[in-house]
Design goal:
Rossmann fold, 11 helices, six-stranded parallel sheet, oxidoreductase activity, nine-stranded mixed sheet, alpha/beta, Dehydrogenase, 2 domains
């Protein structure tokens, strides 16, 4: 088995998740990290031998096989382009870029260089999502005609909650849709095999201004700083998005995307109705898949490699009764990516740059719909 050397750029909440998942695979060593200001402290915490404040210095001085980009959205394009020009494989966090044009350019250069490229839509690798995909491929739900659900969180409920994602200059034109709605749309299209062909959207920005701390805080971290430690910042991105969809087979759907849903820390849900049966899954009960039937008993399928589809077994590491969750989806996603680099292309369920481009196109069309108040076709 080939040994890989990986570098991770951006060591916030998600960058740490990347480091931990890579180490669990076994043949991957995280040899360097990049983080502004506190790189040495982060490296010591994670036991990584090399650290840098500037990604260029790492890429110019360290021999790497793969680079993971876990930085704010507006930096993805610049960093990914530099990595690709160095001839290094890339794994990028979502949303892929902040514009369609940037995404198109990265897709083109990755193809030109012949490098493995990936976007971390890790929800594809939840075993019961994978199981549902296999069931739909086998027509066990019949013809899919209705899809609804959403992705809701509460970490931006208060006006004192502030993060770089709130600023459109760093996150892009949309915030909630790009940040978590992109996961929902990718999961739906990947699971059903359908494509969104039209969108209608409306946004709500509940907090017109927010109180920004005068010192930085990390994602999902709260501070009890006094009011004097804040500055009022006008907000130009959405707190909540209400989305309607039309799919290429005639199916219709809707989703609510919110970062202000009290008590829901990180809930993504799908309800898919077919002509034979329906299926429901949500991340707060992620090892179960509900199946609904008109003329028979309803059923709950529990994650267990002894009863699921053969294909689903490839992304299950533990026996039935042993929960697999958020960190495991990262591990399974990265395992496939590194197997592809090694030459095994038989499994390619992970999202590539073209899927990232698809996400940016959907975000752009959703924003267009918000601006004009009409249905918008997705080319």
């Amino acid at each position: 088995m080939r040994k890989f050397k990986a570098g991770v750029i951006g060591i916030g909440f998600i960058g740490v998740a990347h480091v931990e998942a890579l180490r669990r695979i076994g043949n991957i060593e995280v040899v360097a990290i990049v983080n502004p200001n506190d790189a040495a402290e982060k490296a010591k915490m994670l036991c990584v031998p090399k650290w840098f404040d500037d990604y260029r210095e790492m890429l110019d001085t360290v021999d790497l096989d793969v680079v993971h980009i876990c930085t704010p959205n507006h930096t993805h394009y610049e960093i990914a382009m530099y990595v690709l020009q160095k001839g290094i494989h890339v794994v990028c966090e979502k949303p892929f870029t902040t514009t369609v044009k940037e995404a198109q350019e990265l897709v083109a250069i990755a193809k030109e260089k012949g490098l493995i490229n990936a976007v971390n839509f890790h929800n594809r690798f939840n075993p019961m999502i994978y199981q549902l995909k296999k069931m739909i491929q086998n027509e066990e739900l019949g013809e899919v005609f209705s899809i609804h659900g959403g992705y809701v969180q509460d970490w931006l409920l208060y006006d004192t909650d502030y993060n770089w994602r709130i600023n459109s200059e760093e996150s892009g034109k949309t915030r909630a849709v790009a940040d978590i709605g992109s996961h929902w749309m990718d999961t739906v299209e990947n699971v059903t095999g359908l494509k969104i062909v039209e969108v209608f959207a409306e946004f709500t920005t509940y907090h017109k201004t927010r109180k920004k701390l005068l010192r930085p805080i990390e994602t999902f971290k709260r501070s009890q700083a006094a009011s004097a430690d804040y500055e009022e910042v006008p907000i130009d991105t959405e707190d909540i998005a209400f989305l309607l969809f039309r799919f290429n087979n005639g199916a219709k759907g809707n989703a609510t995307i919110s970062q202000m849903c009290a008590g829901r820390k990180n809930k993504i849900s799908l309800f898919i109705s077919g002509s034979k049966q329906s299926a429901e899954w949500d991340s707060e009960n992620l090892n179960e898949l509900f199946l609904g039937r008109r003329d028979g008993y309803n059923q709950i399928i529990v994650k267990d490699p002894s009863i699921v589809h053969e294909g689903t077994k490839t992304i299950i590491s533990y026996p039935g009764g042993h929960v697999e969750g958020f960190p495991d989806t990262f591990k399974q996603c990265f395992a496939q990516i590194y197997q592809s680099i090694e030459g095994n292309r038989s499994l390619r369920d992970f999202a590539i740059f073209e899927d990232g481009l698809r996400g940016m196109i959907l975000c752009e069309k959703i924003m267009e719909s918000v601006q004009i108040g009409q249905w918008v076709k997705v080319e």
